[in-house]
Design a protein that fits this description.
Elements (H helix, E strand, L loop, with lengths): L2 E10 L5 H18 L2 E7 L2 E9 H12 L4 E12 L10 E3 L3 H9 L12 H12 L6
Parallel strand pairs: 2-5
Antiparallel strand pairs: 1-3, 1-4, 2-3
Bound molecules: flavin-adenine dinucleotide.
The site of flavin-adenine dinucleotide (FAD) has 19 residues, from helix 1, strand 2, strand 3 and helix 2.
């Protein structure tokens, strides 16, 4: 089976509380483990930036479900690539937001707040990879 990595960003339709984010992550982690999907989610400035990795069909179907979710809209796919080994395999859905490391990484990208619409594919992937090593507990 072919494996892929899909990275997209979207805008939250309202400010997300910690409880909102926890509810998204609880469901995501539960579902993803059954689907063999892993990934990483970042949230700031009403932007979500998410990587989904797994079998092509499973990732495609999940992405279509996710973008139907009324908690966000304006989703834009940043990249979609075949992969040999998932980078985020240790996390059914990792999460990072608002930490000192998060801000430091954004500074390196010349951003004061997360603005994924201004990131290249390579910058977005490298940001997600770095944040996976410095996650926020929710
Ligand atoms: P149901 O809970 O029956 O949902 C029915 C519908 O209601 C769906 O359209 C759902 O999106 C919507 N919904 C559910 N909860 C709420 C709520 N609190 N407020 C408003 N609408 C709601 N799910 C995953 O499985 N894996 C992921 O990696 C993942 N990542 C996500 C990333 C983001 C940024 C967001 C916003 C959501 C994510 N989700 C993820 C959640 C996903 O969109 C679905 O809510 C989830 O898969 C359950 O959908 P369902 O149709 O099976 O269940």
């Amino acid at each position: 089976m072919r494996q892929v990595r899909l990275i997209y960003y979207s805008r939250a339709t309202r400010d997300m509380s910690l409880a909102d984010l926890k509810s998204i992550l609880d469901v995501a982690r539960d579902n993803n483990s059954g689907l063999g999907i892993c990934g990483m989610l970042c949230y700031e400035n009403r932007y979500f930036l998410q990587a989904l990795e797994g079998e092509r069909e499973a990732v495609n179907e999940l992405y279509l479900d996710i973008i139907d979710d009324p908690r966000h809209d304006e989703a834009v796919i940043l990249s979609y690539d075949e992969i040999d080994t998932p980078i985020f395999r240790d996390w059914t859905m990792g999460y990072a937001a608002g930490s000192a490391h998060f801000s430091a990484m954004l500074n390196e990208l010349k951003q004061a707040e997360l603005e994924p619409d201004k990131l290249s594919q390579a910058q977005a992937l490298s940001f997600l990879k770095s944040m996976a090593k410095h996650q926020t507990q929710v």
